[in-house]
Amino acid sequence: MSSTQKDFRENSNFEFLIIVAACLLIAVALISLLGTFPTDPLPSEVQGSHVANALIALTSFSGARSLYSSLFFILLLGILGSFVIYALIRQAKLLFNHHAPIVFAPISNVRFLPLGTQSVKTRLEKALRSFGYRVQFFNDETKIEGAKNLSGRLGPLGIHLGFVIVLLAGLLTFLGSDIRETEVREGEVLTLPKEQIGLRLDKFIVFRHAGSDRPSQYTSRFWIKGADGRGRHIDLSVNHPLKLGRTKIFQMRYRIEIPRAEIIVYKNMRPVQQVLLEAGKPYALTPKGQTLSYDKIVPDFKLTRDGIISTGSSYERSALRLKIGDSKGSEKTLWIFPAAFGPHGGSDKERQYSILKLHKVYFSGVRVSYDPGLPIAYSGFILLIFSAFYSSFAIPRRLRLTWHEDQRYINVIVEGWCPRDPSGLEEETNRLVKGLS
Amino acid sequence: MIEGILQFLYLVMAMLFFACASGTKKIWGRAAIVLGIGTLLFHFAFLFERSVRAGRPPLTNMYETLHLLAFLTSLFFMVSRVRWRLDMAGGFTALVSALLIASTAIASPDIEPLLPALKSNWLLFHVSACFIAYSSFALSMGCGLGYLIIRGVPFFKARGEGREELLRKADFLTHRFILFGYPFLTMGIVLGAVWAELSWGRYWNWDPKESWAFSTWLIYSVYFHLRYLRRLPRMAFAVIAVFAFALVIFTYYGVNFWLSTLHDYA
Question: What CA–CA distances, in Å, run from B133 to A254, B92, B136, B140?
Fold first, then answer.
């Protein structure tokens, strides 16, 4: 087989591989998007619901969010990963094979008049050097070659390798991780099975922005016994996970329950009794035989035309729905508010009520995670970032300038090699040619 | 009020660049540059003042990021124009900026205190990397559209440059801006994964925002692979650049409105 036939075959093979790679990438991209569509059909009264529902029906085979853990998707990623490994080996072979042929493509021709003292070779060399090329000379006195950023060939190699590492890390995470969410009540112990230790949630603290009800940070203050047997407090906050051995704990959310409420009972607008109500338990009021209980609390309430609505979850300013039962068995409900708003009695002229204090119990929502894939993923991430930058900003290029002189002019043939950025090479060559001619 | 002024300025800038691209009078080009610099200075002053007032860079909600994207897109074009002139792309990018500013109408301009999840040093790096990438892709889309229009108009000419020369330049710039944006998109996604690991306990959650960003990254990777195919016409790359930017816009904007995502606050 002649070398031209071999080159042609190599090139066709390479182009075929590129097309397969592009098809695989498009398939993964589109199937990843399918998983983001909602699965529940929209009600028919919603505008455009028929189009949306048709789309949902079309994509339902993918199983939406569960698609990403399906065997089908994992296999698809596996095929992509295997193909990337193949490409990686091929690239590495080419990179380290110093005898691999470099196919230069003609870019342009230039003619210029010879200069008095400067030789053609010197002039072309200067031109190449001004564009950052390292110049190589040949025995043949009518040819020079320039090359730059040849180390940039490592960029795509790094991206492929980084991507494979991240895919492997993903597989390891999928197979070997143990990630679970749990809720810890103040006073309860969170047990970490992998570390054989327990953390007691002593206090949950919500920090708020100055002059606002909006939380600025949530912190779970745990009590932990150290290896030396001495106890200490450690804080877990959003964006600041705790690492204990191989396990990490993350602060995710919180919830408040009100198991008890203290209310003040007034008579003719004068406080007469302080009552501690427990959720779900009626309290017998003396001496009339009335019972008090509550069934709803609206945190951070706001009075609107539609009734009482909640505007937050801080419980700093709450409304409580009080149930007042009498000895005959009838029951009425009444909204009461914090003492600062004054006693509230509704239609009951004799007795009024207000909230003195709500006993809050915090439940801290935490995620406990053991992920063996994490260090591998991070190595892949680092490689991906550096390689992506290197690949984009160090593009390898080669230029070959061949010249011959006729009676008056010097004719230069410019050929180049830059498979990754032919338009960039063309742009650069145009500037080089302009400078020469 | 500010949005109205900025929208008007960007629209006039777009018209001037289009006039400059299709006409032969130098005055349009000069007017476009002067107006462009003035608009960018005004926009920068607005962003700076808001950052000082909020005590943080303008990266934390939809209103701020729409402004930032509009600003960066036009800024990148003006900077790149110093070296490479393709005024039609300038017209499209100024138009994109005007549309982005118009879109702030649906976002709240109030400066709200930061949510605990957003109080992280990763915010600056993750969001700014993503927006540098998005701005660069907006420019590549502008160049791609420029390519398609020049290709579609048989006798298109500009000052001192022939049609073929313009097509070559549009193709080159499309590629150049994608080359510039791609590593920043990679960095944005990766830093987002690192932050997600610190905040949510998993570096990849297949959240719609993540899935769309990943797909966008894959489509730009496809673009780079196809560049190796010499037989593929240049028009194909212009089409991919425009299509991929549509994906970018959905990733940034659409996902928050139409899909349920952990990035709701963004």
Answer: 35, 17, 5, 10
Interface predicted TM-score (ipTM): 0.90
Exposed, middle or buried, B203 (CB in 10 Å: 0-12/13-18/19+)?
Answer: buried
By C-alpha distance, the chain B residue nearest A18 is: B225
A342 HSE (CA, 13 A, CB side): 5
Q: Which of B179, B197, B215 sits opposite A392 (nearest CB)?
A: B179
First CA to last CA distance, chain B = 23
CA distance A66 to A70: 6
> Are B211 and A33 in contact (CB < 8 Å)?
yes
- The encoded tokens of residue A10 equal 């190599």
Give the predicted TM-score (pTM) of the model.
Answer: 0.87
Give the chain B residue whose CA is nearest to the CA of A420. Answer: B228
Number of H helices, E strands in chain A: 7, 20
CA distance A42 to chain B (A): 12
Compute the distance between CA of residue A76 and CA of residue A90 in angstroms, rounded to an integer. 21
Question: Helix (H, G, I), strand (E, B), or coil: what is residue B84?
Answer: coil
**Which member of A238, A377, A420 has the closest CB to residue B199?**
A238
What are the tens digits of pLDDT across the range A120-144?
Answer: 778 888 888 988 889 888 777 788 8
A115 — phi, psi (to 5°)? -95, 155
Radius of gyration of chain B, Cα coordinates, nearest whole angstrom: 19
